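thought: fold this chain, then report.
action: predict
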Amino acid sequence: MAGLGPTDSLPDTRICPGCDLPDRHDASNDQQKNKPKAVGQMKFQWTGAIALAASAVAAVALAHTGATGVVLERMNGMTAMRDTIAELAPMMQGTVPYDTFVVSQGASVIASHAGTTMLSLFPENSLEGVTYAKPEIWSDWQQFAALSEELKVYADALAEAAPNGLEPASSPAGEMAGMDPSGMDMSAAPPAAQGFTVAELMGYGAAPERIAVTRGASDPTALALDLTTLAADDLFNRISATCSSCHAQFRSGRN
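observation:
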């Protein structure tokens, strides 16, 4: 065998410690070792985000364990409205900047779950499984329906009146002069947004009795005539008072 010259070299055949076999180390191995750490960190961040989203979905499913069909559907609707109230309340209290778009979109979410949509999710005696609905919903259906429709009227008005902000819009003189005020409830809404938790606003907090629960007595058709001139927080307070009244009369439990 001929000897090696001064410029010749043997292949790198280090012994692999895990298997005692020659392990050829070439340039591709070194490139893998030198891969930027940012790539690995990005994969870790994506994995963490996916895990967080999965845990959130699991939490929602756990909260409604046992609920199926129409009961689960109406629970999801109530949860959507509760979350919207929670998002809008700080704006109405002035603790975060007011956002017209967010208020309008949030009001539309509430309206989409109120009125006939809500009523359709309460077929007679649908009390099976996990539900907070009381039998009084069906024994006093007219009152329940009135509250549901009033909630939609207020929410639709807030979606349109969101640009008013926390100050009422001025109504055109001619419009006000031509209106028939009979049958209209133009009294100020209860100041529900100030100093209340979201649970209290929705009527299942520690002190729901502190919130007026006399809604549902007005004619929604008449109410809709001039509601869009009100301040956004006034309409929000009317929405929360309607929710509070409905829960006080027709919902069991505080969870």
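thought: worth noting. Confidence is low (pLDDT under 50) at residues 15-25, 42-64, 171-196, 204-217.
final: tokens above.
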